[in-house]
Design a protein that fits this description.
- By secondary structure, the protein is an alpha/beta fold.
- The relative contact order is 0.11.
- The strands form two sheets. The chain has a six-stranded parallel sheet, with helices on both faces. Strands 6-7 form a two-stranded antiparallel sheet.
- Strand 6 and strand 7 form a beta hairpin.
- It binds 5,6-dihydroxy-NADP and zinc ion (ZN).
- 5,6-dihydroxy-NADP (NZQ) binds next to helix 2, helix 5, strand 6, helix 7 and helix 11.
Length: 389
């Protein structure tokens, strides 16, 4: 196991009715708030009113900026930065999913920075400071509510890039699983795939002696495999929604990656897809992750066989770990199909040509090879896109 430092400073407030504590939490950190949200689901389902009431009870001044789109755009981030500067905002509250949170994070680092906020995403500048930020979560998926990352899309050129810094971890996250009852099936399923991907990006490592965190990863994956179908069947099943919600935060709060080298190739390869075609990130991962596994499992069939036996309860074929490894990959693909996700580029409603694959492979590796389990160059990434076709 490698040396590590683990400090996740985000305060988690979890359960029914906890949104009533939003005003109290914000009041400790700011006076004038930017209330940032998405395309309207929070108004439709009453979350907006509940959170706004709590802020008003504390007498907080609120400026609003809605309209965050899935795969959040740089243009709205810039608008948010201008609003915060004009209005002297000192705290940002993101009410929504990963897209709203990531947009809020980008605004929070853009306000104190004189240059173009994209500098942090193009890796030209390191993040130094930010406005404090809190979250009211409405979908278990991205894990951004306690992660140090933000992913933003620059439409010009179709770039989807991330910025990472401890500065980006929210101060608090309010998680009421009831807020997720209204999720469309496709978003529930895509969220489940994203959570699983966050675990698997950490699980597949060559690091020895990480049995403890391997077991945590396996438990998290099994929790999703059990509860996602229940939530799809019974959208208002609190127990299933609660487990998905907590698992999604833990999957990406860095605990599961402690002591090991993480991979992240599949996320980089997927970000090209959602950057170019504006598809849902989790659905993109349901296509890319199995393809990545097919391409790299030969590197350590034993680890993949462990995945098959412990996550999917399949017997290990000791004469052919390779065969056992492949069974686990098939199980994963079948699970994604069962919960209604695409598993091939062909399943998408967009046309992806061979020239598109080459362009995406090129962009994906323009800063060097991706991944750690196997370092992938442009030809490798292209081969994975082809396997996903
Ligand atoms: O915009 P509204 O109207 O709110 O609708 C949203 C949106 O259409 C809807 N929704 C959210 N909560 C709802 C709801 N509909 C009904 N009831 C509710 N309770 O769901 C749609 C998707 O929302 P979005 O925020 O895009 O989902 P998600 O949380 O999956 O976030 C995806 C984004 O996060 C990034 C992804 O790349 C993608 O851009 N990621 C961020 C990470 C991070 N910052 O650490 C890590 C992840 O790997 C990921 O890359
Ligand atoms: Zn993800």
């Amino acid at each position: 196991m490698q040396n590590f430092t683990f400090q996740n400073s985000t305060k988690i407030i979890f359960g029914r009715g906890v949104e009533e504590q939003t005003g109290e939490e914000v009041d400790k950190l700011g006076d004038k708030i930017l209330f940032h949200y998405g395309g309207g689901s929070i108004k439709e389902y009453g979350i907006y009113d509940k959170v706004m009431d709590s802020l008003k009870e504390e007498g907080l001044e609120v400026v609003e900026l809605g309209g965050v789109q899935p795969n959040p755009r740089l243009d709205l981030v810039k608008e948010g930065i201008d609003v915060c500067r004009q209005e002297d905002v000192d705290f940002i509250l993101a009410v929504g999913g990963g897209s709203v949170i990531d947009s809020a994070k980008a605004i929070s680092i853009g306000v104190p920075y004189e240059g173009d906020v994209w500098d942090f995403y193009s890796e030209e500048k390191q993040i130094q400071e930010s406005l404090p930020l809190g979250v009211v979560l409405t979908i278990p998926a991205a894990g951004s509510e306690s992660s140090p990352g933000s992913v933003i899309t620059k439409e010009e050129g179709g770039y989807k890039r991330d910025a990472v810094s401890e500065e980006l971890r929210p101060e608090f996250a309010i998680l009421n699983p009831e807020f997720t009852f209204t999720l469309p099936e496709f978003q529930t399923a895509s969220g489940a795939a994203d959570i699983m991907a966050h675990v698997m990006e950490r699980y597949f490592t060559h690091e020895p002696e990480v049995g403890f965190t391997d077991r945590l990863c396996e438990a998290t994956l099994r929790t999703i495999i059990k509860n996602a179908p229940i939530a799809l069947e019974e959208p208002e099943n609190y127990g299933a929604r609660a487990q998905l919600t907590w698992a999604s935060t833990v999957a990406h709060n860095d605990l599961l990656g402690t002591g090991r080298e993480e991979d992240w190739a599949s996320h980089n390869i997927e970000h090209e897809l959602s950057g170019k075609y504006d598809i849902t990130h989790g659905a993109g991962l349901a296509i890319i992750f199995p393809a990545w596994m097919k391409y790299v499992h030969g590197e350590d069939p034993k680890k993949f066989a462990q995945f098959t036996s412990r996550v999917w309860n399949e017997e290990t074929n000791f004469d052919s770990l390779e065969r056992t490894a492949k069974e686990g990959i098939e199980k994963l693909e079948t699970f994604f199909e069962r919960i209604g996700l695409p598993t091939r580029l062909d399943d998408l409603e967009v046309e992806v040509t061979e020239a598109d694959l080459v362009e995406m492979a090129d962009k994906c590796t323009d800063r060097g090879p991706v991944g750690n389990f196997v370092k992938l160059d442009k030809e490798d990434v292209l081969a994975i896109y082809r396997l996903a076709n």
